[in-house]
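Lecture 7, part B: from sequences to assemblies.

Below are the input chains for today's worked example.
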Amino acid sequence: MTEVRRAGPRELAVMFGSFFKIGAFTIGGGYAMLPLIEREFVEVRGWVTDEEIVDVFAIAQSLPGVIAINTSIFIGYRVAGVVGALTAAAGMILPSFFSILAIAALLVNVRDNLWVQKAFAGVRAGVTAMILLAGIKLGKAILRNPPAWVIAGLSFLALVGFGLHVIPIILSGGLAGLIIQAIGRARRA
Amino acid sequence: MIHLELAWTFFTIGLFSFGGGYAMVPLMEREIAAHGWLAAREFADIVAISQMTPGPIAVNAATYIGFRVAGVAGSAAATLGVFLPSLILVLLVARFLRKFKESRGVEGVLSGIRPATVGLIASAVVFFSGMSIIGPAAAGTGFGTTGDAAGSAALAGSAEGFFRLDPGWVLGLGSWEVRLSALLIFLVVLVGTRRFGLKPIPAVILSAALGLALP
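Predicted structure of the full complex, as C-alpha coordinates:
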Protein backbone atom coordinates (compact mmCIF):
# COMPACT_ATOMS: atom_id res chain seq x y z
CA MET A 1 0.00 0.00 0.00
CA THR A 2 1.40 3.33 -1.01
CA GLU A 3 1.50 5.85 1.77
CA VAL A 4 -0.65 8.88 0.98
CA ARG A 5 0.22 12.27 2.37
CA ARG A 6 -2.44 14.79 3.24
CA ALA A 7 -2.14 17.89 1.11
CA GLY A 8 -4.04 21.15 1.24
CA PRO A 9 -5.33 23.28 -1.65
CA ARG A 10 -2.06 25.20 -1.75
CA GLU A 11 0.00 22.06 -2.28
CA LEU A 12 -2.47 20.89 -4.92
CA ALA A 13 -2.08 24.20 -6.75
CA VAL A 14 1.71 23.95 -6.57
CA MET A 15 1.60 20.39 -7.88
CA PHE A 16 -0.70 21.37 -10.74
CA GLY A 17 1.67 24.17 -11.63
CA SER A 18 4.71 21.88 -11.54
CA PHE A 19 3.17 19.30 -13.84
CA PHE A 20 1.78 22.01 -16.12
CA LYS A 21 5.27 23.48 -16.44
CA ILE A 22 6.84 20.09 -17.14
CA GLY A 23 4.05 19.24 -19.59
CA ALA A 24 4.40 22.58 -21.37
CA PHE A 25 8.17 22.69 -21.73
CA THR A 26 9.15 19.09 -22.40
CA ILE A 27 9.15 18.44 -26.09
CA GLY A 28 9.24 15.10 -27.86
CA GLY A 29 7.44 12.65 -25.63
CA GLY A 30 7.26 11.13 -22.18
CA TYR A 31 10.78 9.80 -21.62
CA ALA A 32 12.21 13.30 -21.82
CA MET A 33 10.01 14.31 -18.87
CA LEU A 34 11.29 11.79 -16.35
CA PRO A 35 14.48 13.66 -15.31
CA LEU A 36 12.48 16.89 -14.90
CA ILE A 37 9.86 15.14 -12.77
CA GLU A 38 12.59 13.69 -10.58
CA ARG A 39 14.23 17.07 -10.05
CA GLU A 40 10.97 18.85 -9.29
CA PHE A 41 9.44 16.35 -6.86
CA VAL A 42 12.47 14.72 -5.27
CA GLU A 43 15.07 17.49 -5.14
CA VAL A 44 13.06 20.73 -5.14
CA ARG A 45 9.83 19.77 -3.32
CA GLY A 46 10.95 16.72 -1.39
CA TRP A 47 7.49 15.16 -1.72
CA VAL A 48 8.81 11.87 -3.04
CA THR A 49 11.97 10.09 -1.90
CA ASP A 50 14.79 8.83 -4.11
CA GLU A 51 13.72 5.24 -3.59
CA GLU A 52 10.06 5.94 -4.28
CA ILE A 53 10.79 7.69 -7.54
CA VAL A 54 12.66 4.63 -8.82
CA ASP A 55 9.56 2.53 -8.08
CA VAL A 56 7.27 5.13 -9.65
CA PHE A 57 9.26 5.22 -12.89
CA ALA A 58 9.59 1.43 -13.06
CA ILE A 59 5.86 0.90 -12.55
CA ALA A 60 4.83 3.77 -14.86
CA GLN A 61 6.82 2.07 -17.62
CA SER A 62 5.59 -1.44 -16.95
CA LEU A 63 1.89 -0.50 -16.91
CA PRO A 64 0.14 0.14 -20.21
CA GLY A 65 -0.72 3.68 -21.18
CA VAL A 66 1.12 6.95 -21.60
CA ILE A 67 4.25 6.85 -19.42
CA ALA A 68 4.17 10.55 -18.49
CA ILE A 69 0.51 10.29 -17.46
CA ASN A 70 1.11 7.12 -15.44
CA THR A 71 3.95 8.89 -13.63
CA SER A 72 1.91 12.03 -12.87
CA ILE A 73 -1.05 10.00 -11.56
CA PHE A 74 1.26 7.97 -9.33
CA ILE A 75 3.01 11.00 -7.85
CA GLY A 76 -0.26 12.92 -7.52
CA TYR A 77 -1.81 10.00 -5.64
CA ARG A 78 1.24 9.76 -3.43
CA VAL A 79 1.00 13.46 -2.54
CA ALA A 80 -2.76 13.90 -2.14
CA GLY A 81 -4.79 10.77 -2.90
CA VAL A 82 -7.25 10.53 -5.79
CA VAL A 83 -7.77 14.31 -5.95
CA GLY A 84 -4.01 14.67 -6.20
CA ALA A 85 -3.87 12.08 -8.98
CA LEU A 86 -6.50 13.95 -11.00
CA THR A 87 -4.83 17.31 -10.38
CA ALA A 88 -1.43 16.04 -11.45
CA ALA A 89 -2.77 14.36 -14.59
CA ALA A 90 -4.69 17.50 -15.56
CA GLY A 91 -1.51 19.54 -15.21
CA MET A 92 0.36 17.06 -17.38
CA ILE A 93 -2.28 16.75 -20.12
CA LEU A 94 -3.63 20.30 -20.52
CA PRO A 95 -0.54 21.96 -22.10
CA SER A 96 -0.38 19.44 -24.94
CA PHE A 97 -4.16 19.43 -25.25
CA PHE A 98 -4.31 23.19 -25.83
CA SER A 99 -1.23 23.41 -28.04
CA ILE A 100 -2.46 20.59 -30.29
CA LEU A 101 -5.94 22.15 -30.52
CA ALA A 102 -4.30 25.38 -31.72
CA ILE A 103 -2.09 23.53 -34.20
CA ALA A 104 -4.99 21.41 -35.47
CA ALA A 105 -7.16 24.47 -36.08
CA LEU A 106 -4.27 26.16 -37.89
CA LEU A 107 -3.20 23.13 -39.88
CA VAL A 108 -6.62 22.47 -41.39
CA ASN A 109 -6.23 25.69 -43.38
CA VAL A 110 -2.67 25.20 -44.65
CA ARG A 111 -2.39 21.43 -45.11
CA ASP A 112 -2.98 21.56 -48.86
CA ASN A 113 -0.29 24.18 -49.45
CA LEU A 114 2.50 22.67 -51.57
CA TRP A 115 5.30 24.09 -49.39
CA VAL A 116 3.70 22.82 -46.20
CA GLN A 117 3.42 19.40 -47.83
CA LYS A 118 7.06 19.48 -48.90
CA ALA A 119 8.19 20.42 -45.39
CA PHE A 120 6.07 17.62 -43.90
CA ALA A 121 7.41 15.08 -46.42
CA GLY A 122 10.88 16.03 -45.18
CA VAL A 123 9.91 15.75 -41.53
CA ARG A 124 8.29 12.33 -42.07
CA ALA A 125 11.59 11.08 -43.54
CA GLY A 126 13.53 12.53 -40.59
CA VAL A 127 11.12 11.04 -38.07
CA THR A 128 11.55 7.62 -39.73
CA ALA A 129 15.22 7.82 -38.74
CA MET A 130 14.35 9.00 -35.21
CA ILE A 131 11.98 6.06 -34.66
CA LEU A 132 14.56 3.63 -36.04
CA LEU A 133 17.15 4.99 -33.60
CA ALA A 134 14.71 4.75 -30.68
CA GLY A 135 13.93 1.18 -31.69
CA ILE A 136 17.62 0.22 -31.84
CA LYS A 137 18.21 1.72 -28.40
CA LEU A 138 15.24 -0.12 -26.92
CA GLY A 139 16.20 -3.33 -28.73
CA LYS A 140 19.70 -3.23 -27.25
CA ALA A 141 18.21 -2.93 -23.77
CA ILE A 142 15.52 -5.59 -24.16
CA LEU A 143 16.68 -8.20 -26.68
CA ARG A 144 19.23 -9.89 -24.45
CA ASN A 145 18.37 -13.55 -25.03
CA PRO A 146 17.15 -15.75 -27.89
CA PRO A 147 13.49 -15.99 -26.72
CA ALA A 148 13.27 -12.18 -26.67
CA TRP A 149 14.57 -12.03 -30.25
CA VAL A 150 12.03 -14.66 -31.31
CA ILE A 151 9.12 -12.76 -29.71
CA ALA A 152 10.24 -9.46 -31.27
CA GLY A 153 10.70 -11.09 -34.68
CA LEU A 154 7.36 -12.89 -34.61
CA SER A 155 5.54 -9.73 -33.46
CA PHE A 156 7.06 -7.77 -36.32
CA LEU A 157 6.22 -10.49 -38.85
CA ALA A 158 2.65 -10.84 -37.55
CA LEU A 159 2.10 -7.08 -37.87
CA VAL A 160 3.86 -6.27 -41.11
CA GLY A 161 3.74 -9.61 -42.90
CA PHE A 162 0.32 -10.91 -41.88
CA GLY A 163 -1.45 -7.68 -40.95
CA LEU A 164 -2.55 -8.99 -37.55
CA HIS A 165 -4.00 -6.54 -35.03
CA VAL A 166 -1.77 -5.24 -32.24
CA ILE A 167 -3.90 -6.40 -29.29
CA PRO A 168 -3.61 -10.19 -29.94
CA ILE A 169 0.12 -9.69 -30.51
CA ILE A 170 0.54 -7.99 -27.12
CA LEU A 171 -1.56 -10.69 -25.43
CA SER A 172 0.47 -13.47 -27.12
CA GLY A 173 3.69 -11.76 -26.04
CA GLY A 174 2.50 -11.71 -22.43
CA LEU A 175 1.44 -15.36 -22.59
CA ALA A 176 4.76 -16.37 -24.17
CA GLY A 177 6.57 -14.53 -21.36
CA LEU A 178 4.63 -16.49 -18.74
CA ILE A 179 5.31 -19.82 -20.49
CA ILE A 180 9.03 -19.11 -20.90
CA GLN A 181 9.23 -18.13 -17.23
CA ALA A 182 7.46 -21.36 -16.19
CA ILE A 183 9.81 -23.47 -18.35
CA GLY A 184 12.83 -21.71 -16.88
CA ARG A 185 11.60 -22.39 -13.35
CA ALA A 186 10.83 -26.03 -14.09
CA ARG A 187 14.35 -26.50 -15.48
CA ARG A 188 15.95 -24.98 -12.42
CA ALA A 189 13.80 -27.05 -10.06
CA MET B 1 -22.31 8.63 -30.32
CA ILE B 2 -19.13 9.54 -32.20
CA HIS B 3 -17.74 10.94 -28.95
CA LEU B 4 -18.36 7.66 -27.19
CA GLU B 5 -16.71 5.80 -30.05
CA LEU B 6 -13.66 8.09 -29.86
CA ALA B 7 -13.42 7.68 -26.09
CA TRP B 8 -13.80 3.89 -26.27
CA THR B 9 -11.29 3.48 -29.09
CA PHE B 10 -8.68 5.57 -27.29
CA PHE B 11 -9.44 3.72 -24.07
CA THR B 12 -8.45 0.45 -25.76
CA ILE B 13 -5.39 2.16 -27.26
CA GLY B 14 -4.35 3.31 -23.78
CA LEU B 15 -5.06 -0.09 -22.27
CA PHE B 16 -2.96 -2.08 -24.75
CA SER B 17 -0.05 0.31 -25.22
CA PHE B 18 3.22 -0.71 -23.67
CA GLY B 19 6.63 0.83 -24.09
CA GLY B 20 5.90 4.48 -24.84
CA GLY B 21 4.81 6.67 -27.72
CA TYR B 22 6.49 5.04 -30.73
CA ALA B 23 5.25 1.60 -29.73
CA MET B 24 1.71 3.02 -29.77
CA VAL B 25 1.99 4.08 -33.42
CA PRO B 26 0.96 0.72 -34.98
CA LEU B 27 -2.08 0.34 -32.70
CA MET B 28 -3.26 3.91 -33.32
CA GLU B 29 -2.66 3.53 -37.05
CA ARG B 30 -4.78 0.36 -37.21
CA GLU B 31 -7.64 1.85 -35.22
CA ILE B 32 -7.66 5.08 -37.24
CA ALA B 33 -7.71 3.11 -40.49
CA ALA B 34 -10.43 0.77 -39.22
CA HIS B 35 -12.67 3.75 -38.38
CA GLY B 36 -11.67 5.72 -41.47
CA TRP B 37 -10.97 8.74 -39.28
CA LEU B 38 -7.85 10.12 -40.94
CA ALA B 39 -5.62 9.44 -43.96
CA ALA B 40 -2.52 7.49 -42.97
CA ARG B 41 -0.31 10.36 -44.08
CA GLU B 42 -2.11 12.88 -41.90
CA PHE B 43 -1.63 10.55 -38.93
CA ALA B 44 2.07 10.29 -39.78
CA ASP B 45 2.18 14.10 -39.86
CA ILE B 46 0.68 14.42 -36.39
CA VAL B 47 3.27 11.99 -34.98
CA ALA B 48 5.89 14.16 -36.71
CA ILE B 49 4.37 17.32 -35.19
CA SER B 50 4.57 15.65 -31.77
CA GLN B 51 8.35 15.75 -32.05
CA MET B 52 8.18 19.54 -31.80
CA THR B 53 5.22 20.15 -29.52
CA PRO B 54 5.00 19.69 -25.78
CA GLY B 55 3.56 16.58 -24.22
CA PRO B 56 3.38 12.85 -24.84
CA ILE B 57 2.89 11.62 -28.44
CA ALA B 58 -0.24 9.64 -27.58
CA VAL B 59 -1.98 12.61 -25.95
CA ASN B 60 -1.09 14.80 -28.92
CA ALA B 61 -2.43 12.20 -31.34
CA ALA B 62 -5.65 11.69 -29.34
CA THR B 63 -6.28 15.43 -29.16
CA TYR B 64 -5.60 15.95 -32.86
CA ILE B 65 -7.62 12.99 -34.11
CA GLY B 66 -10.52 13.81 -31.80
CA PHE B 67 -10.53 17.37 -33.12
CA ARG B 68 -10.48 16.29 -36.77
CA VAL B 69 -13.29 13.79 -36.22
CA ALA B 70 -15.60 15.72 -33.92
CA GLY B 71 -14.22 19.15 -32.98
CA VAL B 72 -13.18 20.27 -29.50
CA ALA B 73 -15.62 17.89 -27.79
CA GLY B 74 -14.10 15.08 -29.85
CA SER B 75 -10.59 15.96 -28.63
CA ALA B 76 -11.79 15.98 -25.05
CA ALA B 77 -13.44 12.56 -25.50
CA ALA B 78 -10.37 10.98 -27.14
CA THR B 79 -7.96 12.47 -24.60
CA LEU B 80 -10.09 11.34 -21.65
CA GLY B 81 -10.27 7.91 -23.25
CA VAL B 82 -6.50 7.51 -23.52
CA PHE B 83 -6.05 8.80 -19.96
CA LEU B 84 -8.65 6.60 -18.17
CA PRO B 85 -6.84 3.23 -18.28
CA SER B 86 -3.82 4.92 -16.71
CA LEU B 87 -5.94 6.36 -13.91
CA ILE B 88 -7.62 3.04 -13.11
CA LEU B 89 -4.47 0.92 -13.32
CA VAL B 90 -2.12 3.27 -11.48
CA LEU B 91 -4.59 3.74 -8.62
CA LEU B 92 -5.04 -0.04 -8.36
CA VAL B 93 -1.31 -0.70 -8.41
CA ALA B 94 -0.59 2.11 -5.94
CA ARG B 95 -2.84 0.31 -3.45
CA PHE B 96 -1.18 -3.06 -3.96
CA LEU B 97 2.30 -1.76 -4.63
CA ARG B 98 4.27 -4.47 -2.87
CA LYS B 99 2.23 -7.33 -4.34
CA PHE B 100 2.66 -5.86 -7.81
CA LYS B 101 6.40 -5.32 -7.41
CA GLU B 102 7.03 -8.82 -6.13
CA SER B 103 4.61 -10.67 -8.39
CA ARG B 104 6.34 -13.30 -10.52
CA GLY B 105 3.33 -13.41 -12.84
CA VAL B 106 3.66 -9.69 -13.63
CA GLU B 107 7.38 -10.15 -14.27
CA GLY B 108 6.70 -13.10 -16.58
CA VAL B 109 4.03 -11.27 -18.60
CA LEU B 110 6.23 -8.18 -18.94
CA SER B 111 9.24 -10.27 -20.00
CA GLY B 112 7.17 -11.29 -23.02
CA ILE B 113 5.49 -7.96 -23.74
CA ARG B 114 8.73 -5.95 -23.73
CA PRO B 115 10.29 -7.73 -26.71
CA ALA B 116 6.92 -7.57 -28.51
CA THR B 117 7.07 -3.75 -28.23
CA VAL B 118 10.43 -3.82 -30.03
CA GLY B 119 8.60 -5.58 -32.88
CA LEU B 120 5.92 -2.88 -32.74
CA ILE B 121 8.49 -0.09 -33.03
CA ALA B 122 10.13 -1.91 -35.96
CA SER B 123 6.76 -1.98 -37.69
CA ALA B 124 6.34 1.74 -36.94
CA VAL B 125 9.60 2.27 -38.86
CA VAL B 126 8.13 0.35 -41.81
CA PHE B 127 4.93 2.42 -41.62
CA PHE B 128 6.89 5.69 -41.59
CA SER B 129 9.14 4.57 -44.45
CA GLY B 130 6.01 3.90 -46.47
CA MET B 131 4.78 7.40 -45.69
CA SER B 132 8.01 9.01 -46.85
CA ILE B 133 10.75 7.03 -48.54
CA ILE B 134 9.40 4.03 -50.40
CA GLY B 135 6.06 3.15 -51.98
CA PRO B 136 4.36 1.36 -54.86
CA ALA B 137 5.27 2.94 -58.22
CA ALA B 138 3.05 5.29 -60.19
CA ALA B 139 0.51 5.50 -57.42
CA GLY B 140 1.00 9.18 -56.65
CA THR B 141 -1.33 8.51 -53.73
CA GLY B 142 0.19 6.89 -50.72
CA PHE B 143 3.21 8.98 -49.95
CA GLY B 144 5.32 12.01 -50.72
CA THR B 145 4.01 15.46 -51.60
CA THR B 146 1.18 16.56 -53.86
CA GLY B 147 3.91 17.26 -56.40
CA ASP B 148 4.27 13.49 -56.67
CA ALA B 149 1.10 13.13 -58.65
CA ALA B 150 2.63 14.89 -61.66
CA GLY B 151 6.01 13.23 -61.14
CA SER B 152 4.52 9.78 -60.87
CA ALA B 153 2.36 10.34 -63.94
CA ALA B 154 5.45 11.32 -65.93
CA LEU B 155 7.20 8.29 -64.50
CA ALA B 156 4.37 5.98 -65.47
CA GLY B 157 4.51 7.38 -69.01
CA SER B 158 8.18 6.55 -69.34
CA ALA B 159 8.03 3.41 -67.25
CA GLU B 160 10.25 1.16 -69.28
CA GLY B 161 12.87 -1.08 -67.78
CA PHE B 162 13.52 -1.88 -64.14
CA PHE B 163 15.41 1.32 -63.24
CA ARG B 164 13.77 4.66 -63.91
CA LEU B 165 14.73 8.08 -62.59
CA ASP B 166 12.44 11.06 -62.93
CA PRO B 167 13.38 14.74 -62.51
CA GLY B 168 11.73 14.86 -59.06
CA TRP B 169 14.40 12.49 -57.73
CA VAL B 170 12.09 9.51 -57.71
CA LEU B 171 13.82 6.26 -58.52
CA GLY B 172 11.63 3.51 -59.94
CA LEU B 173 12.60 -0.06 -59.08
CA GLY B 174 10.23 -2.46 -60.79
CA SER B 175 6.85 -1.97 -59.18
CA TRP B 176 8.33 0.15 -56.35
CA GLU B 177 9.63 3.67 -56.21
CA VAL B 178 12.08 5.31 -53.83
CA ARG B 179 12.05 9.03 -53.16
CA LEU B 180 15.74 9.84 -53.13
CA SER B 181 15.34 13.20 -51.37
CA ALA B 182 13.45 11.51 -48.51
CA LEU B 183 16.10 8.79 -48.37
CA LEU B 184 18.77 11.49 -48.14
CA ILE B 185 16.94 13.25 -45.27
CA PHE B 186 16.56 9.90 -43.49
CA LEU B 187 20.31 9.27 -43.78
CA VAL B 188 21.22 12.82 -42.71
CA VAL B 189 19.13 12.51 -39.52
CA LEU B 190 20.40 8.98 -38.87
CA VAL B 191 24.07 9.89 -39.19
CA GLY B 192 23.59 13.32 -37.60
CA THR B 193 22.03 11.82 -34.49
CA ARG B 194 24.47 8.93 -34.11
CA ARG B 195 27.70 10.66 -35.03
CA PHE B 196 27.11 14.30 -34.17
CA GLY B 197 24.55 14.12 -31.37
CA LEU B 198 21.83 15.92 -33.33
CA LYS B 199 18.90 16.62 -30.97
CA PRO B 200 15.25 15.91 -31.91
CA ILE B 201 14.07 19.50 -32.42
CA PRO B 202 17.03 20.59 -34.60
CA ALA B 203 16.59 17.28 -36.47
CA VAL B 204 12.94 18.09 -37.22
CA ILE B 205 13.79 21.64 -38.34
CA LEU B 206 16.63 20.35 -40.54
CA SER B 207 14.30 17.72 -42.06
CA ALA B 208 11.67 20.34 -42.86
CA ALA B 209 14.28 22.67 -44.40
CA LEU B 210 15.73 19.86 -46.53
CA GLY B 211 12.19 18.85 -47.53
CA LEU B 212 11.65 22.39 -48.82
CA ALA B 213 15.03 22.65 -50.52
CA LEU B 214 15.23 19.26 -52.24
CA PRO B 215 13.09 18.36 -55.27
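Note for the exam: The radius of gyration of chain B is 20 Å. Keep this in mind when comparing with the next example.
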